[in-house]
Amino acid sequence: MTVVDLLDLDDSGHLLDPHHGNPVPSEQVPAAIEKHLRLHDDTTDIFLYVHGWRTDADQAEQAATRLFQLMEDLSAQQPDAYPRISPFRPQYVCVRWPSSSAPTKAGYRTIRDRTSAIAHSGHASHVLAAVLGYFNEHRTLPEPGPDVLRGSYGQYLHAIGHSFGGRFLCHAIEQASNRLADGPDTFAWPWKSDAYPWTLDSLTMFQMAAPADAFTAAPYARLLDDSVLNAPVTMTFSPHDRALGLWHRQTEDVSNGIGFLGATGPREHLNTTPLHRTTDAYAFPTNRLINIDASTYYRSSPWRLEGAHSDYFHPESAHLLLSLTNHAR
Fold this sequence. Notes:
The chain has 329 residues and is of the alpha/beta class. The protein contains eight helices and eight strands. An eight-stranded parallel beta sheet has the order 1-3-2-4-5-6-8-7, with helices on both faces.
């Protein structure tokens, strides 16, 4: 059974104490993270998952467990497909946040604004930075190499978001990368005097709830800087996603969302490739933004209103994540 560590945030982005449910004061967040999370010495990869709209706490844990179990199963079935990550000993973290609202335009806009508020101007970026700071302090440093997760013998960090969870991650990563006002222009955190640069090894968004041109302007454009991310930003899309098709157009008053047609710019950074069968190897391009056409697999959902928006629990999705993990080496 896949074990997932849980971190809960309130609607202001404060970390909630796992024992009594009260908000943790900002200055105590690092200590709370260190007490709650335990990075094992033999861990090879850390996966941080953030859920999307209209997902309660139990559903979020179930979604994370389901996705990670697909990865576990596939890596066991075909280990030769991912030779660089053998042995594969992952640890999983699910960040849960209040994403419930009415299934209306007003409800959609409420959650859209909340993701920005709690990650961009709230406390979530501090929490995310503390999580990464904990993993950095306790991970095995790559040898040889700089203090980023790029060495064969280091422990690697991968962030995954679904729907508004992808938007949440992008806001939080952009903000966390600014935490050191006088430091280098990289993903860093302010709570240790010896803080130094941090970068993610992969960032994957399933059916991201953001405008298709989101990466052409602030704040997402900054994520295209190599100093913030080690890996491309990978985004699935499917025209069967009704939530990010007509629904997104009507609520955002802009074009379709990334999860419907992929990112549309900046064109010099873009590449599009299909979601591969589990037996087909990926050859990832060097572009910073990679659209993954998942229309063959993402076609339906239990929630008819949203179409294929939540239909990403496929072995092919796990294959994408494992391939990116292998590529990070």
